[in-house]
Amino acid sequence: MSHLHYPEVTEYRLPRKNIIAISCIDLRLTDELLNFLHFDNLTNRYDHFALAGTSVSIGATRKEHRALFKEDMLNDFDSFKHWKKTLYEHIQIAIDLHQIADVYIIEHEDCGAYRTFLKDGDFTTPEDEIKCHKEFAVALSKEIRDEYNKLNVHCFMIDIRGNVQLLDTSTVS
Ligand SMILES: [Zn+2]
Fold first, then answer.
1. Which of 1, 13, 28, 39 lies 20 to 30 Å (CA to CA) from residue 149?
2. 10 falls within a domain
3. Dihedral over alpha carbons 68, 152, 111, 94 (to 10 degrees)
4. Based on the structure, what is the number of domains in the chain?
5. Which residues contact 47 (CB under 8 A, 6 or more apart)?
6. d(CA 24, ligand 1 centre) in Å
7. How far is the CA of 125 from the centre of ligand 1 (A)?
8. Residue 37 domain-assigned?
9. Does pLDDT of 1 surpass 60?
10. Is the pTM of this model over 0.90?
11. Could you report the per-residue pLDDT of 151-171, keeping only the tens digit for each?
């Protein structure tokens, strides 16, 4: 029996077509993530792209977010520019091959990448943690919508138990 909390169906428009799910690589939440996608009737309807930290790494490519990163992380990963390039190339492939119409950006609680990449990524309160994830997720959502103007983008936060909350939603088509 499941006691998980998921967003209400009224909070965002459920995808009519295929999607790409962008998540962290975190191994603790793989099955919880898939449970949520199945709950949204997306079984066999999603491409899955996983990168450490979900949206945070793309933040390093953004002028206004770069100062939040540890210097050595920016050097180690060449300011994460190739992460963004690879992500965008996969979104394009998902559009071309599977005609995706929606993007799910799925952030998660207790993300090691946030701790590793950011100067202040070791959050003291859940509110601070969610606020930071939301900032990066919404910024990525906006960039994806600017690049691919027909995609609907929904941002979520999943906790360690697998509960999911909606952070942001944008439906254009
Ligand atoms: Zn993570």
1. 39
2. no
3. -110
4. 1
5. 18, 19, 20, 21, 90, 93, 94, 98, 100
6. 5
7. 17
8. yes
9. no
10. yes
11. 999 999 999 999 999 999 999
Q: Between β-strands 46-50 and 19-23, what pairing exists: parallel, antiparallel or unpaired?
A: parallel
Q: Tokens for 71, please give them.
A: 């210097």
Domain region containing 128: 19-170
Tell me how far the alpha carbon of residue 7 lies from the centroid of ligand 1, in angstroms: 21
Q: Report H helices in 54-125.
A: 56-59, 63-66, 71-76, 81-98, 112-117
Question: Binning pLDDT at 50, 70 and 90, where does residue 2 land?
Answer: low
**pLDDT tens-digit readout, 105-135:** 999 999 999 999 999 999 999 999 999 999 9
Four-CA torsion 31, 123, 88, 147, nearest 10 degrees: 120
32 with 109: CB under 8 angstroms? no
* Residue 9 covered by a domain: no
Q: Where residue 124 sits, what CATH number does that domain have?
A: 3.40.1050
Distance from Cα 22 to the centre of ligand 1, integer Å? 11
The mean pLDDT value for 76-93 works out to 94
